[in-house]
Each structure stands twice: as C-alpha cells, then as structure tokens.
Design brief:
mainly alpha; 10k-s Protein, Hypothetical Protein A, Chain A; 5 helices; 2 strands; about 5% strand
C-alpha cells in the first residue's frame, strides 16, 4: 500500500518541485546572487538571504521525493539518492552562516557564476554538508 501511494505521489511531487525551482525569486544567476550577498546594501543582502531560504525550502521537497525513490520496498532499506543533497540538521537555522559557505564557494569558483544560483547553492551546500546517501559525484 505504501509503495502504491509513493508511486502515485511521484509525478505530483516532481511537478511541484519543478514549479518551485522555476519560480524561485526569478531564477537569479550566480553572479546576481553573489553580487547581492556581497553588497554593502542591507536590502541586497536580505534579498540574497531570502533567495537562499527559498532554495533551502525547496531542498526539503527534493529530499522527500528522492528518499521515496531511493527506498527499496523489498528490504525497507534506503539506497543511494539519485541527486546530490545537503544534510546539516539544525544548521538550517543559521542562514547567514550558510550564506557565507555559498559566497565562499562562488568566490572560489567565479567561472561558474553564470549558472543559475539555485544550482550553485545546492552544489556549495552538498559539498560542505554531504548526505550519507548521496551518489558518488564522479558518476554524475
């Protein structure tokens, strides 16, 4: 019964996730996020933190979908995720510190800033706070 329910929910969760990501504050580029996050303007910094919070909230849906997909219904054990995720428990409450991790990643990889900010944020946080069930990045 649980397996059937998860199978029925997959398309709905996937569609929901795509909608959330595509509407996440206008899909900034890494350059836009980095510029706002490192700006002297308090309103620019708040905008960057709001964007980051949106990515963190969307990650909750990504992990829910991927965890359901990764569950081996025969054994009841979890297998590897399909995508890279970040796992940091209560650190989610420390938004400014997470922003520092992302800004450092973008500073260290300026050649990637043309990529959508939500992708760079997920990459930075997955590198800094990898989940145990993440796939091997060399195979992705």
């Amino acid at each position: 019964m649980l397996k059937q329910a998860c199978e029925l929910m997959r398309p709905t969760l996937f569609a929901l996730m795509l909608g959330l990501v595509s509407n996440a504050s206008g899909n900034w580029s890494g350059t836009e996020f980095y510029g706002n996050a490192t700006s002297d303007s308090a309103s620019d910094k708040r905008a960057a933190l709001a964007y980051l919070q949106g990515v963190l909230d969307t990650e909750d849906f990504y992990q829910l979908y991927d965890a359901a997909r990764a569950l081996d219904f025969k054994t009841g054990k979890s297998v590897k995720f399909e995508w890279l995720h970040f796992c940091f428990g209560s650190a989610k409450d420390k938004l400014a510190q997470l922003s520092d991790v992302v800004v450092k990643y973008m500073k260290d990889h300026p050649e990637t800033r043309y990529i959508d900010a939500h992708i760079l944020i997920r990459s930075a946080l997955a590198e800094a706070f990898p989940c145990a069930n993440n796939p091997d990045p060399s195979t992705k």
